[in-house]
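We treat protein structure as text, and this decision shapes the records that our systems exchange. Because each token names a local backbone shape, the row as a whole describes the fold. For reference, a complete record is included directly beneath this paragraph.
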Amino acid sequence: AVCDIKLAARDARFGMPEVKLGVPSVIHGAMLPGMIGATRTRDLLLSGRIIPAALALDWGLITDVAGDDGLDAALAHWQAEIEANGPLAMRIQKKLIRDWERMPLQEAINVGIAGLVSAYDSDEPKRYMEAFLANRKRR
């Protein structure tokens, strides 16, 4: 529940079964409304049921379900996607996401603008934009 990218095998199953053991789910349960909405949170936390990976993907609980190539191939794909990004931009983006989760919308926008401006303290945006445009011209 707390990972940035959540990959699952097709046969993976997810749930919050604590109530079936006589205790409430607290820490991860508190995070669910922001991830999957209040109605689905109530479903999982009050029923304690377990859902399949495909439904967890549909709900937004996980990021991706591995295809026929398996979990290692899905991981390699996501790793390549992330490693292709600018490291400074990734650090700024991760911090912004964490901040936004705790802020009202207008404050989140203001902090986001400040993060965008700080990315230009380096040459990373220029280098990555030039590479993007050069790659686009080749296609």
